[in-house]
């Protein structure tokens, strides 16, 4: 596919006004979708029982002399995905993009060259850096053919952890992330120096799905896929299908898990092995938490430890079935209190769950290789500060529905995103509690830029352990309370649903932090 063809065939999402499909369009979409699904099934089928190859080592660019100096070229072209040639979007011709690594106190200089046909920019997801100027400013727009230099400093007290960079130019975010753009951003810090964590073998697992046809071209989406949030049938780890990674008997493995998908959720379980959670969204817990499974919504990250305490063999890292809600085809008479065009649980006609696949999927395979003296788990990690009582309580309602003349729109507090409007104003040196209610029929992962927060409760139940987050899943019908502290970095930033089609279709608000 030529670049011009890609530009012409791409469906714009700046306007959420979607038109009906006629019979020819439906047949074209069906054929395209069937081709993509068949390809994914063929590739996955070959590797489901046996791993295809070793987990690919990701290209790494680390800071030297206190400076992380990087050039990222956002472009469209040929990349290798799951052992086949595909035509996708990438940074520097690779998926995932280079792994960036820095330390607290480092200066960061990133030159982004936009060789896409559409505008772009970069968001440094989870980093606590300024949201203004040429730092983590998502209101910047890098035009096609232009280059922009980002420059900022990682604060001296920034936590070490697993973070993420990806495009965030509103109206094009989902297209560019789903097309392939994104990469890990690692901050080395105190967690890495804990002896037991330092002794563990470390792997990054970059979880990402794609929709490509038998010729390796990006499949044309159907308009309902925008509403639901696009998922691709080709699910990869570091760009490969079911790669193998190893651990010695007695050893300890640290997995940095990153959900880089546009809309897909990953409900993870490792056969016969518990997962010991040590960090969420890049920030350490106070002590490891043993889990049998771990759910990662889009944009979420988690660090887990795995012990080599089983008989040598092969153990699958599984993505278990998960239903992220239902999509309703709206009609009149939607119930009292909902307002015109809004959706609530059990409403609407033609409810569907198009991506609830019902069977576990093998993402990768753990094998045993060699033997070492048993390595212990850490007993203590890094204390998690308890935030004080809030000075202000705010309420946010997530929903979606039909708007006259606009089609399907996604809202926060009844409003679709408008970059000219300030939705929430806060002040530095304050603590706030935010109550987030999802009155719709689909799950929404809520992401706050710049400032991490703590989970206080879900549906009135206190969180079982203290942790810092920047992305929190709010299920359909759920009420989640979070607490956030604003201590530095005045300026304008955003909060939004991290199902990126929903963000592009309006589920985002502007936050003004007053100095």
Question: What's the SSE blueprint?
Answer:
Elements: H1 3-9, H2 23-47, E1 60-62, E2 67-81, E3 84-91, E4 99-102, E5 107-114, E6 123-125, E7 147-153, E8 161-166, H3 173-178, E9 183-187, H4 190-193, H5 195-199, E10 201-210, H6 223-228, E11 234-237, E12 244-249, E13 252-259, E14 266-270, E15 275-280, E16 283-291, E17 294-296, E18 301-307, E19 314-320, E20 327-329, E21 349-352, E22 361-371, E23 392-403, E24 407-412, E25 424-427, E26 430-438, E27 444-448, E28 453-458, E29 461-462, E30 468-469, E31 471-474, E32 479-486, E33 491-497, H7 500-504, E34 508-514
Parallel strand pairs: 1-4, 2-5, 4-9, 10-13, 12-22, 23-26, 25-34
Antiparallel strand pairs: 2-3, 5-7, 6-8, 8-9, 10-11, 13-18, 14-17, 14-19, 15-16, 15-18, 19-22, 20-21, 23-24, 26-32, 27-31, 27-33, 28-29, 28-30, 28-32, 33-34
Description:
The structure is a single chain. With 515 residues, the chain is mostly beta strands. Helix content is 11%, strand content 42%. It contains seven helices and 34 strands. The strands form seven sheets. Strands 23, 24, 26, 28, 29, 30 and 32 form a seven-stranded mixed β-sheet that branches. A hairpin with a 3-residue loop joins strand 23 and strand 24 (407-412). It starts with a helix and ends with a strand.
- How many strands, what sense, and barrel or not for the largest sheet? 7 strands, mixed
Portion in helices = 10-25%
| Overall mean confidence score, pLDDT | 87
- Based on secondary structure, the structural category is mainly beta
Name the quaternary structure: single chain
Beta-strand proportion: 35-45%
User: How large is the count of helical segments?
Assistant: 7
Number of strands: 34
Shape: globular
Low-confidence parts: 1-47, 329-355
Q: Compute the CA-based radius of gyration.
A: 22 Å
Cα(first) to Cα(last) distance is 49 Å
């Amino acid at each position: 596919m030529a670049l011009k063809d890609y530009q012409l065939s791409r469906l714009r999402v700046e306007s959420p006004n979607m038109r009906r499909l006629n019979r020819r369009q439906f047949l074209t979409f069906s054929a395209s979708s069937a081709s993509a699904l068949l390809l994914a099934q063929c590739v996955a089928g070959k590797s489901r029982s046996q791993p295809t190859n070793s987990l690919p080592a990701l290209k790494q660019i680390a800071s030297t002399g206190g400076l992380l100096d990087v050039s990222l070229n956002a472009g469209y072209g040929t990349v290798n995905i799951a052992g086949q040639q595909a035509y996708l979007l990438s940074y520097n011709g690779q998926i995932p993009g280079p792994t960036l690594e820095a330390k607290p106190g480092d200066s960061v200089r990133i030159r982004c060259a936009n060789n896409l046909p559409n505008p772009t920019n970069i968001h440094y997801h989870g980093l606590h850096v300024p949201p203004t100027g040429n730092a983590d400013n998502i209101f910047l727009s890098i035009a096609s053919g232009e280059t922009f230099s980002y420059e900022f400093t990682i604060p001296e007290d920034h936590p070490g952890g697993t973070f993420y960079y990806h495009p965030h130019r509103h109206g094009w975010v989902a297209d560019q992330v789903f097309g392939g753009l994104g990469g890990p951003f690692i901050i080395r810090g105190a967690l890495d120096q804990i002896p037991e964590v330092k002794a563990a073998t470390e792997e990054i697992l970059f979880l990402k799905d794609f929709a490509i046809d038998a010729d390796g071209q990006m499949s044309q989406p159907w308009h309902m896929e925008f509403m639901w949030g696009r998922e691709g049938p080709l699910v990869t780890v570091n760009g490969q299908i079911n790669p193998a990674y190893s651990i010695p008997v007695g050893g300890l493995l640290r997995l940095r898990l990153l959900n880089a998908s546009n809309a897909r959720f990953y409900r993870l379980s490792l056969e016969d092995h518990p997962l010991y959670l040590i960090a969420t969204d890049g920030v350490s817990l106070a002590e490891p938490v043993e889990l049998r499974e771990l759910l990662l919504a889009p944009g979420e990250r988690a660090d887990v430890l795995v012990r080599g305490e089983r008989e040598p063999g092969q153990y699958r890292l599984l993505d278990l079935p998960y239903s992220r809600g239902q999509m309703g085809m709206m009609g009149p008479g939607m119930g009292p209190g909902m307002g015109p065009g809004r959706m609530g649980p059990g409403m609407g006609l033609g409810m569907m769950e198009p991506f609830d696949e019902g069977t576990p999927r093998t993402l990768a395979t753990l094998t045993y290789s060699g033997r070492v003296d048993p390595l212990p788990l850490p007993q203590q990690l890094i204390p998690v500060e308890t935030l004080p009582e809030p000075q202000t309580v705010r309420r946010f309602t997530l929903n979606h529905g039909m708007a006259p003349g606009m089609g399907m729109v996604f809202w926060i507090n009844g409003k679709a995103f408008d970059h000219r409007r300030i939705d929430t104003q806060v002040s530095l040196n304050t603590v706030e509690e935010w109550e987030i209610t999802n009155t719709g029929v689909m799950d929404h992962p809520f992401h706050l830029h710049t400032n991490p927060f703590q989970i206080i409760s879900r549906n009135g139940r206190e969180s079982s352990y203290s942790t810092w987050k920047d992305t929190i899943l709010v299920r359909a019908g759920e009420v989640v309370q979070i607490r956030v502290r604003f201590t530095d970095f005045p300026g304008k930033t955003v909060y939004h649903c991290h199902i990126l089609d929903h963000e592009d279709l309006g589920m985002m608000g502007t936050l003004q932090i007053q100095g």
